[in-house]
Design a protein that fits this description.
The structure is a homodimer of 318-residue chains.
Chain A lengths: L1 E8 L16 H13 L9 E2 L8 E10 L2 H4 L11 H12 L4 E8 L12 E9 L14 E2 L6 H9 L3 E4 L13 E11 L18 H6 L20 E7 L6 H13 L5 H9 L15 E7 L6 H11 L4
Parallel strand pairs in A: 3-10, 5-6
Antiparallel strand pairs in A: 1-3, 1-4, 2-3, 5-9, 5-10, 7-8, 8-9
Helix pairs in contact in A: 1-3, 4-6, 4-7
InterPro entries (chains A, B): PsdUridine_synth_cat_dom_sf, PsdUridine_synth_TruA, PsdUridine_synth_TruA_a/b_dom, PsdUridine_synth_TruA_C, TruA/RsuA/RluB/E/F_N
Pfam families (chains A, B): PseudoU_synth_1
Catalytic activity (chains A, B): uridine(38/39/40) in tRNA = pseudouridine(38/39/40) in tRNA
Chain lengths: 318, 318
């Protein structure tokens, strides 16, 4: 049986998704949890993931799959009652994984589903606290702080050249045996709007309240004085959606956009890099902390297998 | 000259606001930064704060003040040009403080301003990820995770009894020489609405795109498939606003609400604790990580001094 696992993680303390000997990785932790519950050797558990994130990159909507025999899966049930092996596995592994990983669901995958090859697109968001944003220290693990004002209009002019089908060789690590051709569906720098976390309806005290007597009438009748905003309000975000991403592609596009936003590079320089793929003059990738894989989309159930076969055919392992 | 300092911090790695020998505290770090810039001994720098947060509690809108002689303040200018001592101090200390503190502004305080005694109210928010919320691991330092569903209606029935002027002795550490009487203006558990981080307008590819040719028509025309929500969407929040708070008061109210929400205590038990202040049978305070001091409000400039004098008179040092 093939299981689809939806999960999220804070990438700060991981050496990325992919399992590596002697390194703390997301794949390593999740596989170890599954192996423990199913009484398997870790080397017999192998996850296939939608987006292999690099060291320090986060995911709020990652998807992976695993193939497991029914009789092995049922080992998860143990003394539980009225649950399937799949549900039992979910309930157990979500409590075993470390607290920088959250398992959202484990479900039987529909026919033809492949977490990696069936995916129709991936959505990444890079968050920046520039001079105009309040750099909330509670979010410092997921936001890049820049003590500078950026020319957002120029940055958007630059990234508009990425829309459509291009070879992103100028913005990606080399991919031996594969291509760096990808189709970008959306790429835009935007200011997060100021939004209220919760609605309010303030009690202003009775005429006889001690406070009012002691201090004089409270001048605050303006309820906006009590509004609490989402912590992400005011941040600058780069959202990019593509069928898939070449290695380092999002962070390199962000690094190059920021160079434009600071006036160190021109929009034309950026557009030329898109038009003429080359590795020379690569702008360094932006730091990993600002990047999150937000979601992975799949086509309708009936098209999953067709999609996976087509993608396997056109794209080498990358 | 009196300076008003607005700041924020992630409380996770601090032993609270208040300076303590041999402990990492917010006050200690900010005072050390100011002392360094003004070439003073740390013991000659003393901040007065609006809300003295406990160990592990965060602040996104903390306010404090400091009194400093003009000639000392001007030491901050050094080789800077065209800046006041106040602006120079701001620019320097914001770069010196550790990255779990953000200094938002340093400004000359208006006449009569006292960060602590002029404040008209404080706003705290406690964040919980219950079974209905997605526990985003990126926010785990600022959200309490509860693997349980809570009866939010019962919790709100309970906390409605706190509105108005009450002695919160059942929910506070003893306050020798002072009272635990406070006026609550708002207290409510609410589900954070699902809000889009940024608007989108997706490019679906041309008829001749490689992707379309290879894989068949992309079935995704529904743009909701690309929406990214604020990371706090779906969380359960407790917002409470009062003129001031007794020690441990918010976390004790949260702990008692959660006991009601889990069905372990009744609404009547909660209301009785509000009606009859007593220390017996205290419900433990909820963990510090979920709590943030969100903002501090002050009356109009002309009323600052009056307010401060009145509050000093009615409330002992607490």
């Amino acid at each position: 049986m093939r299981l689809r696992i939806d999960l999220a993680y804070d990438g700060t303390q991981f050496h990325g998704w992919a399992r590596q000997a002697d390194q703390r990785t997301v794949q390593g932790e999740v596989e170890a949890a599954i192996a423990k519950v199913l009484r398997l050797d870790s080397s017999d558990v192998c996850l296939t993931v939608a987006g292999r994130t690099d060291a320090g990159v986060h995911a709020s909507g990652q998807v992976c799959h695993i193939d497991v025999d029914d009789d092995v899966l049922n080992r998860a049930i143990g003394h539980m009652h009225d649950v399937s092996g799949t549900q039992a596995l979910f309930r157990r592994i979500r409590r075993i994984v470390p607290d920088d990983i959250t398992i959202y669901s484990v479900e039987e995958a529909v026919h033809g589903f492949d977490a990696r090859f069936s995916a129709s697109d991936r959505v990444y968001v890079y968050r920046v606290a520039d001079e105009l944003a309040h750099a909330d220290p509670r979010l410092r693990n997921m936001v890049l702080r820049i003590d500078d004002t950026l020319d957002v209009e120029a940055m958007n002019e630059a990234v508009s050249s990425t829309i459509g089908l291009h070879d992103f060789g100028s913005f990606a690590l080399p991919n031996p045996g594969g291509t760096t051709i990808r189709e970008v569906k959306f790429a835009r720098w935007q200011r997060v709007p100021d939004m209220n976390l919760t609605p309010m309806n303030i009690y202003h005290g009775g005429a006889d309240s001690l406070d009012t007597q002691a201090v004089g009438a409270d001048p605050r009748t303006d309820e906006s004085a009590y509004e609490i905003e989402f912590a992400e309000s005011g941040l600058l975000t780069f959202t990019i959606i593509a069928d898939a991403f070449a290695r380092n592609m999002v962070r390199s596009l962000v690094g190059a956009s920021i160079a434009v936003g600071r006036g160190k590079k021109t929009v034309q320089w950026f557009a030329d890099k898109v038009a003429h793929p080359q590795r020379e003059g690569l702008t360094g990738p932006a730091p990993a902390c600002g990047l999150t894989l937000e979601r992975v989309n799949y086509p309708e159930d009936g098209l999953l297998e067709e999609r996976a076969n087509a993608i396997r055919a056109v794209r080498s392992l990358d």
